[in-house]
Amino acid sequence: MKTVNIxxxxxxxxxxxxxxxxxxxxRANVKAISDIRVDLIEQWARxxxxxxxxxxxxxxxxxxxxxxxxxxxxxxxxITYIEAAAKAGKHIFCxxxxxxxxxQTKRALEIVEEHGVKLQTGFNRRFDHNFxxxxxxxxxxxxxxxxxxxxxxxxxxxxxxxxxxxSGGLLFDMAIHDFDMARFLSGSEVAEVYVQGAVxxxxxxxxxxxxxxxxxxxxxxNGAIGVIDNSRKAVYGYDQRVEVFGSGGNVSVSNDSDNSAxxxxxxxxxxxxxxxxxxxxxxxxxxxxxxxxxxAILENKDVPVSGRDAYxxxxxxxxxxxxxxxxxxxxxxxxxxxxxx
Length: 341
Hints:
The chain is α/β, with parallel strands linked by helices. The protein has two domains: 4-117, Rossmann fold; 127-281 and 312-340, Dihydrodipicolinate Reductase, domain 2. The chain contains 13 helices and 15 strands. It has helices at residues 13-23, 38-47, 58-62, 78-87, 102-115, 129-139, 161-167, 169-186, 203-207, 278-281, 283-298, 307-326, 332-340; strands at 4-9, 28-34, 52-54, 68-71, 91-94, 119-121, 146-154, 190-198, 213-220, 225-231, 239-246, 249-253, 262-265, 268-271, 330-331. Helix 5 (102-115) packs antiparallel against helix 12 and helix 7 packs across helix 8. The longest helix has 20 residues, at 307-326. It starts with a strand and ends with a helix.
């Protein structure tokens, strides 16, 4: 069986997750991993069978046996590594977002295209079994034309101060998944965005100029309307729900939990809380997205989540940020013109 030799740049939480998933794949071989904290990851990496552990990412890019690079480093480094990997002729899997700057993202995608390599973006929720079912129902016409799309996305606890400071904020870091999901489920581009935001969870987030609670209204080019609500803290767990109402019916997806048992007693009716964090909730989705990337390389197919998908989600996030700042609806066309000239 043919395998793909892979190098991973960045061995934080998400980099380690991808490494462990790839190590279980029969079609992938993680040959090398780079991170600034080699002393913290070396034993873990060796246990996975990774032969090269280094602080120097250039060793991965210069290795002729490595065919693909997973970019799992901080967002501010993504553009540099995408451009370097493309010029080195490596296929690329990059975590979201590609960048916080639309011009930089556009330039990186041009370099990827120029060098003829594949680029897949890490919007893992597209590979969740629940959301894939909704997309299949829509593709089959079972729900008719989408009219209203509702997305709920709430974290169990807010991230730390240091993370928020460099994350790009709620709209670029957290809600960008939901902006991509809105496109994925609607089958349409977003035409206009309007955001209401607040700081209701952690005052420290507000001190950084960010929000921790938001409701976003979307207008789609096909006429549908979307509503996304985000919160950095849901005390009951990781809250991930979707509802699509269409001309031919309605479909809703509730939270995943450890089991679906529901029990009734004199005290009330009970069931398990939702799974607590994204690593648990989307465990299988992460595996599916990496397998899809390997498929694209081995079978020379298009990747299922392209650089353009990353670009469009970032454009929606930029329009959302402008809407929040200016307290008004902002069209995608207006946001693009302002950012790209």
